[in-house]
């Protein structure tokens, strides 16, 4: 055993790198190493011999393992010293040119939309992304049997057994913010509600999380004509065109009556969207006059006040304006994509200075 000890301690001390050290470990204390083979011979010894040889072999194994650990740490320290020596940097040298960060298209479009509606007197309202099903459904006149309330479409929060609190959901639209705003501020009001929303869907044009902006205007003499003007001004400003044709198609939403889906005249020449010209129509949003039951849920008397509401997907209008083919790319965190579609952090969109640059 003294010969084994001297042999391996010498080899460990002379090891030049971790690869060589690992070879020594396998040869010495590996499953088929010399120390392991010696331990297998204990079965052939008498009890008296085992009492002497067993502790000696264990002590030898421990000593070799300790020497291996110490040498490994020493090699790591030497490698670090070499890296620090070769990677030395003169901090007085001029800095290297670095690529600046960019603003995500969703953030950019949210700012563009906010700037446009701010010029028309709309303020921004925000609310929680996790809300009760009352704010998300009941207050918006969405009945209990409505398909949107099914678990295949809506993310419900887990409820412990015996929990009597109202069910909570990841909001499926930003409409709950409208109810909370009416409760807090009453009428008259003009707000937009941008933010993230969640639905159980995933394909080229749908993701489980996406972004919406909804608008609400309440006063005593508001009509569909006011809604039409607001949307026309928005589309012209957002797509930066001088004129646009909107087509209102009768539809049904539980929270508006009457309801209308809105299309814009456009063309797809060469695969590029051109708004305000051509013979094609493209749906971009839903709208309508606020349902009296929704006004009541927000604490507003529908006999005295009326208003309009609209909603559109921020991701969708970003895809249309900036030619993004796949909605899922917005959430991939691909630096190449972000550098291609990103915007300068210093270019704040305004109607006077331009929305996109």
Provide a descriptive summary of the structure in words.
This protein is α+β, with helices and mostly antiparallel strands and 357 residues long. The strands form three sheets. Strands 2, 5, 6, 7, 8, 9, 10 and 11 form an eight-stranded mixed sheet that branches. The longest helix has 40 residues, at 47-86. Helix 1 (2-14) packs parallel to helix 4 and helix 5 (105-119) crosses helix 10 (314-322). The protein has helices at residues 2-14, 18-29, 34-40, 47-86, 105-119, 133-136, 175-185, 224-239, 292-297, 314-322, 335-341, and strands at residues 102-103, 123-124, 130-132, 168-170, 189-198, 209-219, 246-253, 256-267, 274-275, 280-290, 306-313, 343-344.
Total DSSP helices: 11
What fraction of residues sit in β-strands? Answer: 15-25%
Please mark out the parts with pLDDT under 50 across 5 or more consecutive residues, or reply none: none
Radius of gyration: 35 Å
Percentage of residues assigned to helices? 25-40%
Give the helices and strands as they follow along the chain: HHHHEHEEHEHEEHEEEEHEHHE
Which overall shape is indicated by the principal axes computed on the Cα atoms?
Answer: elongated
Layout: helices, strands, pairs:
Elements: H1 2-14, H2 18-29, H3 34-40, H4 47-86, E1 102-103, H5 105-119, E2 123-124, E3 130-132, H6 133-136, E4 168-170, H7 175-185, E5 189-198, E6 209-219, H8 224-239, E7 246-253, E8 256-267, E9 274-275, E10 280-290, H9 292-297, E11 306-313, H10 314-322, H11 335-341, E12 343-344
Parallel strand pairs: 2-5
Antiparallel strand pairs: 1-12, 3-4, 5-6, 6-11, 7-8, 8-9, 8-10, 10-11
Helix pairs in contact: 1-4, 2-4, 5-10
């Amino acid at each position: 055993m003294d010969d084994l000890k001297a042999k391996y301690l010498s080899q460990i001390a002379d090891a030049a790198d971790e690869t060589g050290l690992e070879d020594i470990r396998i040869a010495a204390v590996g499953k088929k190493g010399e120390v392991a083979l010696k331990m297998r011979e204990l079965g052939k010894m008498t009890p008296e011999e085992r009492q002497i040889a067993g502790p000696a072999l264990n002590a030898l194994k421990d000593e070799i393992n300790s020497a291996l650990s110490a040498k490994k740490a020493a090699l790591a320290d030497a490698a670090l010293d070499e890296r620090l020596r070769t990677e030395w940097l003169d901090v007085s040298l001029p800095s290297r040119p670095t690529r600046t960060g960019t603003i995500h298209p969703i953030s950019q479009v949210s700012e563009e939309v906010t700037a446009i509606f701010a010029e028309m007197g709309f303020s921004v309202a925000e609310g929680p992304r996790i809300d009760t099903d009352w704010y998300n459904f009941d207050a918006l006149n969405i009945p209990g049997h409505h398909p949107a309330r099914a678990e295949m479409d809506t993310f419900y929060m887990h409820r412990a057994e015996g929990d009597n609190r109202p069910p909570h959901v990841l909001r499926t639209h930003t409409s709950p913010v409208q109810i909370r705003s009416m409760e807090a501020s009453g009428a008259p009001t003009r707000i937009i509600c941008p933010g993230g929303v969640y639905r159980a869907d995933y394909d080229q044009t749908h993701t489980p999380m996406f972004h919406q902006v909804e608008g609400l205007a309440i006063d005593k003499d508001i009509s569909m004509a006011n809604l039409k003007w607001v949307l026309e001004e928005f589309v012209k400003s957002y797509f930066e065109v001088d004129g646009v044709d909107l087509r209102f198609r009768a539809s049904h939403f539980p929270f508006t009556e009457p309801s209308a889906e809105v299309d814009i005249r456009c063309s797809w020449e060469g695969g590029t969207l051109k708004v305000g010209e051509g013979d094609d129509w493209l749906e971009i949003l839903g709208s309508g006059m606020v349902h009296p039951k929704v006004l009541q849920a927000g604490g507003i008397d529908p006999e005295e006040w009326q208003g309009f509401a609209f909603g559109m997907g921020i991701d969708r209008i970003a895809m249309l304006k900036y030619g993004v083919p796949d909605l899922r790319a917005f959430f991939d965190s691909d630096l190449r994509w972000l550098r291609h579609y990103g915007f300068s952090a210093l270019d704040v969109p305004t109607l006077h200075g331009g929305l996109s640059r």
